[in-house]
Amino acid sequence: AEHRAIFIETYRAAAEHVAMLSAGHQPATWGVILDADETVLDNSEYELGRVPFGGSFDAPTWTRWVMEGRAPALPGAVAIKSRVRELGGKVVIVTNRDDAECPITRSNLDRAAIRADLVLCKTTTDDKNPRFDAVQNGSAAPGFPALAILEWIGDNIQDFPHLKQSIRDGSDDGFSRFGDSYFALPNPMYGSWQSNPFM
User: Fold this and answer.
1) What are the pLDDT digits (tens) for 129-155?
2) Contact 40/112 with Cβ under 8 angstroms?
3) CA geometry: angle at 51 spanning 50 and 54, to 5°?
């Protein structure tokens, strides 16, 4: 219940803020960037299946799960997509799923009613910043315009431009954009936090 509440609450806040942030922007000149897994697509069924094996990640079984293309939408994901479109913005998914998995990922997103204007998968690096930059400078895909990105939404600190786990070592000032143009969702299953040293 808490998981669902947090997702609905966060996406509702993001929708309210994007309505304010988009005022004065012409249609199709701006957009929102979202992560895929554990942001708009729910892979908890896969994670549950890994419990008998210690919950550890396994590349072959993950690939099989992705290729099934049946991850459902997370609470609030369809609503934020619809609100961005209603306001005249574009929906961009930037994911670290492998580029070979991009066609089935697009199909999965469509099936989950999260039809994105652009989906960018991983090619050579896990670092999403070059893809963020490409969306903003108009080099992300042929014919796809440069966009002013008004919000980023993700479940990993690295889903936000130039942020890493080390942000936690600084003051709260480093988190000033959260709740305004950055919206973070909980993922207790996996993430870059797993490599943090124990305090």
Assistant:
1) 999 999 999 999 999 999 999 999 999
2) yes
3) 95
